[in-house]
Amino acid sequence: MLFRRRKPARLAERLRALFWSPKGFVRPFRYFRMRIVRLAASPHAVAAGFAAGIASSWTPFIGLHFVVSFALAYVIAGNMVAAALGTAFGNPLTFPFIWAATWEIGTLILGGGDSSIGRHIDLHHLFSNFEMSQLWRPVLEPMLIGAIPPALVTGFLVYGLTFYAVSGFQSRRRARLSLRARTRLAEAIEGSVSV
Asked: What's the pLDDT score for residue 117?
């Protein structure tokens, strides 16, 4: 086998690797950050696209987050790849928290604690019969209305952070490439003069 370990991992090592990654949990986040920062677009386009992706993750429409993020990115002149990467904010680990937060915010905005909204909902019956009119009012409408405030807050916050990160990375990269080009030019001139 090409990538086999010299000494096979013991059972304790395999169990520990199941719960704690040997490379650490920071590495995927670093890779994700570098993937966003290295996109070949203007800082505004990358930041706007990434913010659109995160904002679309707050909506309750699973399966349509890419479409919603692409539409938002198109409207605000964002990068589509950054928008697709931003939808990773909504994942199976964060969806329960997102849905609970948006539903609570939505019920506060719509009903302000009205006892008829969100009480005694038979979700099994709603999903088995799939009556959209009955599912819209108690579940989807509060979640959609409740998604607006956190989507705006996280969108603006992420836009600012991403804009400054991308512009800083691109300016450092331009300076590094300029320095490398100048040294190559100086070496080429020095080589031609000595001949």
From this structure: 47
Amino acid at 17: A
pLDDT band at 140 (very low <50, low <70, confident <90, very high): confident
> What is the C-alpha separation between 129 and 12, in angstroms, rounded?
48
Q: Are 48 and 73 in contact (CB under 8 A)?
A: yes
Look at residue 79 and give its three-state secondary structure: coil
Q: State which amino acid sits at residue 170.
A: Q
Long-range pairs of 136-143 with CB within 8 A, sequence gap ≥ 24: 139/60, 139/103, 140/60, 141/106, 141/110, 142/102, 142/103, 142/106, 142/107, 142/109, 142/110, 142/111, 142/117, 142/118, 143/59, 143/60, 143/99, 143/102, 143/103, 143/106
Cα 35 to Cα 85: distance, rounded to the nearest angstrom: 9
Alpha carbon distance 48, 176 (integer Å)? 26
